[in-house]
């Protein structure tokens, strides 16, 4: 049985068609939204894979921002802005010329990837590394050979952090081998191939800029198709096997840990403290053989007695504290 549409429903349908974003379909008295599917740009990455990529690069952003803050001697706020899937040709067209483009190589599985840094950020970083105030230039200019050599140490840190943050998923080594200022000369894959672009937002001294990482989708799909990685993506980390538990236990048992104790306390006047010299004796409030605390990682764990064993100072453990107990002098 046909249903006669009201004028409001007809207007809603026409407005949806005219915008080209979504159409409306009628079911009973309700209007349902129908999203249009873009066959030119199909979504090749699942939500689980996208979430995994976001976690990896959020770690990269945290670690690299700490590195930049130390190198530039100022607060650098870096965060993951977006993970997008586009065509490689679209990425090339989006990069302004002259730019700062670094071509990197991944060894296993072998592939190339691209790091694109705003040229204004490059000039700012180089100026700060040379002791200058650091200014964001308003007009783009080519990056000189000297500036490229100075930035090599900075982008090498990106390669190290990439390997480190990808390690829970897959182990590989990567490095940057080439610098280009014109994106047309950077053809790591055919223009019609899809890529995954990770955009990182950098905020320095009130200025906001971007740093983009571009991976070929073919490399991402190869990694994600490994059965072990698929299990991590779909089900998360699995329970450790007996061999893995033994390995962790062995590593923990062979790990060194520092212990410290408080032999005693004393109070003296400031004038006496200032006039201390070699050979002076400070009397402590503890007696020989009294119970002294022992700490491991700043946690009060043992009650001990201080003494000697052969020619060495030592302490004997009298009791082990089962629960974390605050120390009171």
CATH architecture of the largest domain: 3-Layer(aba) Sandwich
CATH class of the largest domain: Alpha Beta
Fraction in helix = 25-40%
What does the oligomeric state look like here? single chain
Average pLDDT level? 83
Query: How would a textbook summarize the main sheet?
Result: 6 strands, antiparallel
Please provide the count of β strands. Answer: 12
| Radius of gyration over all CA atoms, rounded | 31 Å
Provide the number of structural domains: 3
Counted by DSSP, the helix tally is: 9
The best one-word shape is: elongated
CATH fold-level assignment of the largest domain: Chemotaxis protein chec
Rounded to the nearest angstrom, the distance between the terminal CA atoms is 88 Å
CATH superfamily of the largest domain: CheC-like
From N to C, what is the helix and strand string?
Answer: HEEHEHEEHHEEEHHHEHEEE
Low-confidence stretches: 18-26
Structural class by secondary-structure content: alpha+beta
Strand content: 25-35%
Task: Tell me the strand order in the biggest sheet.
Answer: 3-7-8-5-4-6
